[in-house]
Write a structure and sequence with these properties.
By secondary structure, the chain is an alpha/beta fold. It is about 25% helix and about 30% strand. Strands 3-2-1-4-5-7-6 form a 7-stranded mixed β-sheet, with helices on both faces. The radius of gyration is 16 Å and the shape is globular. Bound molecules: S-adenosylmethionine. The site of S-adenosylmethionine has 17 residues, from strand 2.
Length: about 190
């Protein structure tokens, strides 16, 4: 259903960084996870939608890359603590009802020295969203994440900027980008 191209802000922020273990949460049809795997990242990609994950598996096979795909609710199944050098969440759609605890467990998946990258739609009109049956008040937003990271992360970017390479036809022209580095020593052995 989607373009098959990786998200522009992910490419802008991550291209050229040292590779390691990456977790893509809400991976959808997997274009970002595949792009990361093609660049040498060891990728785990999770989505609550079995349809999305099955499409992602097909796309990865066509691209001839290995990604560890999982169909799971990240709010119910927290990732292992400190297990990833990169946690990417592109255009999250995580319900607020679960409270802060699963979000904190999710952020805790980032290893010391690792990177968190969350990208959302900026300037989205809440009324238009509601007309499409999506009430933004029900979903965790970047301001929530910004508040949650302060204890353990140094924020490197908290910005709104034009969306690089927007998919054709989208009305989402700007990205809100939160990039933060977990405090602590990066583990040895990464290239
Ligand atoms: C707006 S889409 C973004 C998909 C992809 N990251 C992209 O940029 O194309 C949000 C994705 O999050 C997934 N999702 C929503 N709640 C989730 C949850 N609790 N656990 C895992 N995935 C979830 C949805 O199924 C959907 O694929």
């Amino acid at each position: 259903m989607w373009s098959g191209a990786p998200n522009g802000s992910l490419v802008t922020e991550i291209a050229g960084l040292p590779v390691g273990r990456a977790l893509d949460v809400g991976c959808g049809e997997g274009a970002d996870a595949i792009w990361l795997a093609q660049r040498g990242w060891q990728v785990t990609a999770i989505d609550i939608s079995s349809v999305a994950i099955s499409r992602a598996r097909v796309a990865a096979k066509e691209a001839d890359v290995d990604v560890d795909w999982a169909c799971a609710d990240i709010l119910e199944t927290p990732p292992a603590p400190h297990a990833f050098d990169l946690l990417t969440i592109q255009y999250p759609a995580l319900l607020r009802t679960a409270g802060e605890r699963p979000l904190r467990a999710l952020l805790n998946a980032v290893a010391p020295g690792g990177l968190l990258l969350i990208v959302g739609h900026a300037h989205a009109d809440p009324e238009i969203a509601r007309q499409h049956g999506f009430d933004p008040d029900n979903y965790v937003d970047l301001a929530d994440f910004s508040r949650l990271v302060v204890d353990d992360f140094d924020v490197e970017t908290n910005d709104i900027r034009p969306r690089p390479s927007p998919p054709p036809g989208t009305h989402h022209a700007d990205d809100a980008v939160l990039r933060a580095r977990r405090r602590g020593e990066r583990r040895a052995g990464l290239c």
